Structures are given as C-alpha cells and as structure tokens.
Amino acid sequence: MMNFEQYLEQTQEIGTVTQVHNAIVYAQGLPEAKPHEMVVFETGEIGEVLSFSKKNVEILLFSKKDIRVGTKVTRTDEQLSIPVGDAVLGKTINPLGLTVETDEDGQSERRAIDAVPLPMLRRRNVREQLETGVTMVDLVIPLGIGQRELVIGDRKTGKTEFVQQTVMSQAQKGFVCVYAAIAKRQVDILEMKSFFERQGVSEGIVTVATAADDPSGLIFLTPYTAMTIAEYFRDQGRNVLVILDDMSIHAKYHREISLLAKRFPGRSSYPGDIFYLHAKLMERAGNFEKGSITCLPIAETVFGDLSGYIQTNLMAMTDGHIFFDKDLSNLGRRPPINPFLSVTRVGRQTQSELMRDMSRELSIFLVHHEKMRQFMHFGGEVSENIKRTLAMGDQVISFFDQPPERVVPMNINGLLTAGLWSGYWAGAKTKQMKEEMLILIKSYRENEAYRAQVDQLIGSSQNFSELVEQVKHRKDEFITRMVPVQVKQAAQGGQA
Amino acid sequence: MYEAVLDQIQTVDDLLLLQEELDKLSKSLYKTSQTKFEDVLTNEVRGSTASAMRKELEKFSGNKNEYLEGLAEEIKNFKKIEMRLAFEPSEAAIRRFSNWVKNEAGRNSVLEIRYDRSILAGVILVFKGEYRDYSVRRKLKDYYRI
Predict the structure, then answer these.
(1) What is the largest CA-CA distance in chain B?
(2) Sign of the alpha-carbon dihedral angle for A182, A186, A190, A191
(3) Which of B101, B95, B76, B92 is nearest to B16 (CA)?
(4) Are A467 and A413 in contact (CB under 8 A)?
(5) pLDDT digits (tens, 9 = 90+) for A187-242
(6) What is Dmax (Cα atoms) for chain A?
(7) Residue B129 and residue A14: Cβ atoms within 8 Å?
(8) Reported confidence tier of residue A134, pLDDT bands at 50, 70, 90
(9) Which of A123, A241, A382, B50 is the right S-S partner for A386, CB 3.0 to 4.6 Å?
(10) Do A52 and A39 touch, CB atoms closer than 8 A?
(11) Share of chain A above pLDDT 90, in %
(12) How confident is the model at residue A480 (pLDDT cuts 50, 70, 90)?
C-alpha cells in the first residue's frame, strides 16, 4: 500500500475533515469518491467511504488514533482489500490483513473484502459429512461440508469449546480453518491460540482477531476479512471451515456505526440493512465445484430466547442451528446441546444409510426417553420397561458427554453406539462404561489394525440393526479384547 | 448588485472580516438609536467597504436588512481556492493572484494562501477537492525518480 503523498499524486484529489463523530468522519472535498472506496489520511490512518452528499463524504475510520478536524484525506481509487496468501496460515492477523506481531503483510495477492458470492451454477449439493468430533452432533445433528450452521446459546454454555473441537477435528484432516474473533477479550484470543498450539493444529488455522477495545470500523470488518481469506483457499481447491465468533456482537457494532452515521433506526435500533449485511456474508459460504466453505456463525441468546431479532435473522439465513441449552448446562451436560431444539437442514443427506439409520434410532430413543423422564415427575410405580429405558437413556446421555479437548472419530462412535444398543454395557456403572469407551477410542486412534477392522465393519454394514447384530456376535473381537483386564477387574470389584 | 463590495474580497481573511462586519451591521439595525447603523458603518467597517456599501444602499430598492441578508447569502456561495506558496506574497502579488483566479474560476472565488517553504518554489493549488502540485519539489522528485 502506498502512503498519503503517493495516493495524492496519483488521484490528485484532496479532502479536509470537517467533523469527527467517533468512528465516523465527515470530510469536504474528494469530488470523485466512490462507495466502499479506501481513503488515506495524512496521518497514515485508513478509512472507507460509507456514503456522500453534495457537501460531505462520510468515512468509516479503521484506526484507534483520533483524527483531528482539518486533517487532509485523499482517495486511493481502490476498494477495501486485504493481502491473502499461504503465509497467513498459522498466523493471527487483524481485519486489514496485517499480522498482529509484525505489522507487515508480505503477501502477493490482494482481494476485495466485499465480494459477490459465486452464482448457482458454480455451486454443488452438500454431499459429504463434516465430522465435528463431537459425538452428539455427528450422530444426531449431522453437518455437511459446505453447510452454514448457526451455533446459538446463552453465554458460557460451551459454544466456543464446541467450535474449538470442530476446528481441531477438521485441521487434523487437512482443512484450512479460519477463526474470526469478533471483539473478544485479548486473553480469550490468546487462550484460543495456545489451545490450538497445544493440540498441534495451529499451522492450518488463520485467526482474524479484533479486541473489544479496537475501533468499531475494524471490528465491523472482521467476519468479511475471514470470509475473503476463506475464498482464497477455496479457489485453490481446498476445503475451508470458517468460524464467526460471534455475529450478535457484530450486529451491535454495526448498529453503533449506523446510529453514529445518523441512519434511521429500525427494530431494536438496528439499521434496516442488518439482514442484508449478514446474509451476503453467509451466501459466500457453501459447497462449490472447486473447494468448499463451511461456515459456523455463533450467536448469543439471553435466557435462551431464540426469538430475538438477530438470532432469528441468522437462523433464517443458515442451514440449521445447534442450540446450547442453559438448563442442560446447569445439569452438568457437556456439551449442553438440546437435540430437540437443534436443526440440520442439509446434514442428513450427507450421511451414509447406516449413519442415517443410527441417527434416526437415536433421535427416536431420545424423544422416548424424554417423555419417560417427564412421566416420572408424576411419581408412582414404573414398569421394568420404563426402568430399562431410563437406564439406557442415562447411559446414552453419558455417552454423549465429552470434554472440550477430546474429538472422537465417527466410525468409533458408530461402534460404541452399536455396543450400547446391543446391551454390552447394560447394567454396568456409568464410570466403567466411560472408561471402557475411552480405551476403545484410544485404541482406534493408536492401533492401525483395530482402526482398519472398525472401519471395515462400519463400511460393510447396511443398516443399524445389522451393525448391532454384528457387534453383539463379535463383541469379543471389537470390544472385550481391547479393554484391559485391570479395568474389568476394577469394575467387577466395584460391583461386588 | 453587490459587485462593488464583493470585488474587494481577495482572500479568506477578507471574507471572514466582511462576515464579521455584516454581523455587526445586522445587529445595529435592532438598536434603539436611529443613527446606530451609520455609526457602525463609519467606525467599525473598513473605509473602502463602507463607501461601497453606501453607494449600493442608495440604489437598493429594499430595506437595509434585506440588503445585508442578500449580501450574506452571496458570501456563502464563495468558492475557496487554496494556494500553497513558498514565500509570503505582498499585497500587490495577492491582488494579481486574486484577479487571475477571479478571471479563471469566477468572481465568487476567494484565495486561501498558505505558506509552505518545503515546496521550494512554484505553487500547489486545491480547488473543490481537486489537488494540483506545480511545485519545484514535485519536479525534483520526479526528476530523481527517473
């Protein structure tokens, strides 16, 4: 990027700042300013033309430094663009594409932040499943590669932990992951970064970060920069996962900027174009003829209210939502995903016959279990059947419980579900069941022969009943022999 | 109508001074003393401006308030041309520049002269957001770039 004098020489147009309202600056002059054109101030700051009238040009500022009235500004004759390239992988950058550490870009290509989404002819159906590594989601609320799925819930319900697991899982598979931290605390951004470094996946992750004390204009750009970087990698034929954390904060900053720019307020004082602003971002994701962009925007609710303005907007423009329930979180469930209030519109078509069958069985069972639990509130005697259902339900819920640093491959999840359904762990204590499951997951990861065996079993089963039968008859081969004797003895000792 | 007064405006300082004088004259119209306007015109307005105003007021058909309001509106339409020079120009030089500017850009143009030694010589002009650098500094930069 050139400096003020160079742009002045090039465009031969100058303006003078006449008013400053926080992030919005009004300048007189710049007769040929265009909307969304980048402008440079004589002090080195950058802004973007928002709109103009006969007398003034309205500029959105991207800098923390105060601009004084009387400061000169010039046009650049360029749309706001960021440098992109493979060198951003593993780095933390700001929305202008500069690395936080060095303040340099060093990239060869520049791309406009505001891009038109690809047309329908360049898109393909969502066909492959996206493995998040979270058992509940992979089995009950499946996602597809190229899907846009909203992650929604109250604060401190584990949404960020869920996306971290997804990023970890996908980064291990070679996806490029772009994480947009929108107005987050510095300490949270650093924690996220160190989490990925500990897991050894930071090389494939780009973090576009803005802190809460950054200028509103810069915070506003964050998700657009993330999507632009994702498009660069998509055009190279790669699969990209984009996390936008979180869009409700982004909407608040857009509201702030619009009110400062004296735009007429709409519902809840949000500007009238808030839906358009988010929708054009979401439409840039999808499955394409070359590469894909899977987008997981995050939205925060207040007391579980899914009917909020921004929340419903985002639900309308995505292909489903995963709801993190505060009540389930208070009960200690991790992740506290409510499968009854979560939706996946294009995830099921990506599943194999077996997985779809398994997913259906699990969903039906969960509904049945929930009804039984509510029936229990009336008190009274319960039949053996109901007791079995309740016990099984507790085991299934325990099976879904997963700490944030663990990702579980789908095939082993399939085997464990089949094991549960076959009654292998019937009557067993939850702790023992969890320990044995963990051992099987570990064996799947570390033992190549076992992994091949499990993959072959899952691949060859046509439906869930067949898989359950296979596991029932071959439990020694798939489960018993992998569980160490000590664990079994400890379990038996505990039971005695 | 107001040419005699407006032609005297050469620089932005002249414009600001005239605005102040008009403001004082407008306020004096609402003072109780009948001769207040004349007193202000004699004592607080520049001589050349005051005599030009008297001549125009004799020919003006409306009242003094309308005259002053009309003149204030005309002043609002003045276009500013910024001229950055490497020297502080004399009165004669300013008059010459102003005449040239009024011929080229219209009678309702006014000069804003800034002093900037770093341009070495020549001039930098800014008008309606258009920026033109005709300074020696620019020529030297171009020369050494080649």
Answers:
(1) 71
(2) negative
(3) B76
(4) no
(5) 999 999 999 999 899 999 999 999 999 999 999 999 999 999 999 999 999 999 99
(6) 89
(7) yes
(8) very high
(9) A382
(10) no
(11) 80
(12) confident
DSSP A449-464: HHHHHHHHHHHH--SH
For residues A51 and A477, give the distance between their C-alpha atoms in angstroms, rounded to a whole number.
69
List per-residue pLDDT tens for chain B, 146 residues long.
788 888 889 999 999 999 999 998 888 887 766 668 888 888 888 998 999 999 988 888 888 888 999 999 999 889 999 999 999 999 899 999 999 888 988 888 999 999 999 999 999 999 989 999 999 998 998 888 75
Handedness of CA B3, B9, B15, B21 (dihedral sign): negative
The answer to whether A478 and A454 are in contact (CB under 8 A) is yes
For residue B30, give every residue at least 6 positions away whose Cβ sits within 8 Å of its Cβ, in sequence order, or none. Answer: none
Instruction: State whether residue B126 sits within 8 Å of chain A by CB.
Output: yes
- Residue A118 DSSP code: P
Strand pairing class (A239-245; A286-287) = unpaired
Instruction: Please judge whether A74 and B131 are an interchain contact, meaning their C-beta atoms are less than 8 angstroms apart.
Output: yes
Q: Could you report the per-residue pLDDT of A40-58, keeping only the tens digit for each? A: 999 999 999 999 998 899 9
Helix (H) and strand (E) counts in chain A: 17, 19
Using an 8 Å CB-CB cutoff, list residues of chain A that contact chain B. Answer: 8-9, 11-15, 28-31, 74
Tell me, what's the pLDDT at A486?
Answer: 56
A vs B, Cβ pairs < 8 A, gives 26
Active-site residues of A: which are they?
Answer: 345
Q: For tokens 């020549």, what's the residue?
A: B122
Strand partners, A139: none
E strand or H helix at A140: helix A135-140
Q: What whole-number distance in Å separates Cα of residue A230 and Cα of residue A206?
A: 9
Q: Quick check: B12 contacting A, CB < 8 Å? A: no
Structure tokens at A78: 């360029």
**Greater pLDDT, A389 or A205:** A205
A271 DSSP assignment: B
Can you tell me the distance from the alpha carbon of A181 to that of A179, in angstroms, rounded to the nearest whole number?
6
Sequence length of chain B is 146
Q: Side chain identity at A336, as an amino acid letter? A: P
**Residue A62 structure tokens:** 């991207």
